[in-house]
Amino acid sequence: MKTIKDMLMEMREELVLEIARRSKATTEGAQQDIGDIVDSVSEERTRELEMILTDREKKKLLQIDEALERIEDSSYGLCEECDVKIPKARLKVVPFAKYCVECQEKMEREEKYLREESEDGVRKSAAGEGEE
Ligand SMILES: [Zn+2]
Known about the structure:
This protein is an all-alpha fold. The protein is 61% helix and 0% strand. The protein has helices at 4-26, 34-39, 43-50, 55-72, 88-93, 101-120. The structure holds zinc ion. The site of zinc ion has 8 residues, from helix 6.
């Protein structure tokens, strides 16, 4: 059976592969095998790859790395906000989850609220519309 660590390593590899593929497409003539690139993901190489990462990929890679660190220091699987144990089922779906579902939702709500407010100003409530 696969461990969470295996899953994280796989996700990381997939991400790096995707990036390597893109970097290969952009650097014409570089006939390096993707396998070689993945094998030699040194710190230097990682920094190089970071230059062509999108913000979303950067964030994901960071989350994966952080999760791997947490596995190493055994703080993995605990919510960073309320210290509650994150359910295994959730970790299987989101192995790099830092928060329990409740805290995650709370944060997403706050984030969404802040974003909507800054983007569109204060929105009119659509509630109460319709039947008279
Ligand atoms: Zn929590």
